[in-house]
């Protein structure tokens, strides 16, 4: 049986741009076939050509039909695009000749498939966005940690700056130990004064520095003094 005169074939895509690793689709539809002869997809590049899909079953492993067992939709999917998939693809309807040989009865205008070098592999765009977000988050945490540690160090320095300074006590009671008096002022009792008349002063004199104690004889022990003042009657 021959293909009817009302047969038509549509191949709507002119160009398809594909990145390495992508799956791309080639569309081809026909009217109801009334005669014998398969539909095939043929890739032409340079002076060569190759059948990528054959309705009779001779197809490449990475090529599948979009709508299986359809007599009018011969759209195909080609997985894992590689550079050697570049070329122009034609959808063809074959018919049996009088000698029984398949001859091209009708074909589409061809779809030029080229490689998009700058295109991202599927999923890579989303992964890049997530990676950038994580990097920004880590950077923010690092800056916050640095600021926190600087504040902690600043607080420690501020507390350490208020270190206690030992005070010298120049007065005490006879029953307790008193602090060492200043070498230049404590050895003269006449320089001590009392704000109140009835105060009792007591001091434990320590050896004078060598420069001031040269006039003393060797072995002289430190002395103590006390004064008692009473108000005049």
UniProtKB/TrEMBL annotation:
Entries under Pfam families matching the protein: V-set (PF07686)
Alphabetized SUPFAM superfamilies for the sequence: Immunoglobulin
Protein name: SHPS1 phosphatase
Species: Rhadina sibilatrix
Domain Ig-like: 21-91
Keywords: Disulfide bond, Glycoprotein, Immunoglobulin domain, Membrane, Signal, Transmembrane, Transmembrane helix
Stretches the record annotates as Disordered: 180-221
Membrane-spanning parts: 124-148
């Amino acid at each position: 049986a021959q293909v009817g005169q009302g047969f038509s074939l549509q191949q709507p895509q002119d160009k398809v741009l594909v990145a390495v690793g992508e799956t791309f689709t080639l569309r081809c539809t026909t009217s109801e076939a009334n005669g014998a002869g398969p539909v095939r997809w043929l890739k032409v590049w340079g002076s060569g050509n190759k059948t990528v899909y054959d309705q009779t079953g001779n197809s490449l492993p990475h090529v599948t039909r979009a709508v299986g067992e359809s007599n009018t939709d011969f759209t195909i999917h080609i997985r894992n695009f590689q550079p050697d998939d570049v070329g122009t693809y034609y959808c063809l309807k074959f018919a049996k000749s009088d000698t029984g040989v398949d001859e091209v009865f009708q074909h589409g205008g061809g779809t030029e498939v080229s490689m998009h070098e700058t295109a991202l592999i599927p999923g890579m765009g989303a992964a890049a966005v997530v990676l950038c977000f994580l990097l920004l988050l880590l950077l923010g945490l690092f800056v916050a940690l640095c600021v926190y540690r600087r504040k902690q160090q600043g607080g420690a320095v501020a507390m350490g700056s208020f270190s206690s300074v030992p005070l010298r006590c120049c007065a005490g009671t006879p029953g307790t130990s008193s602090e060492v008096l200043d070498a230049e002022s404590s050895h003269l009792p006449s320089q001590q004064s009392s704000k109140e008349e009835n105060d009792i002063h007591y001091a434990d004199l320590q050896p004078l520095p060598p420069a001031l104690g040269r006039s003393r004889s060797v072995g002289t022990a430190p002395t103590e003094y006390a004064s008692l003042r009473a108000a005049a009657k």
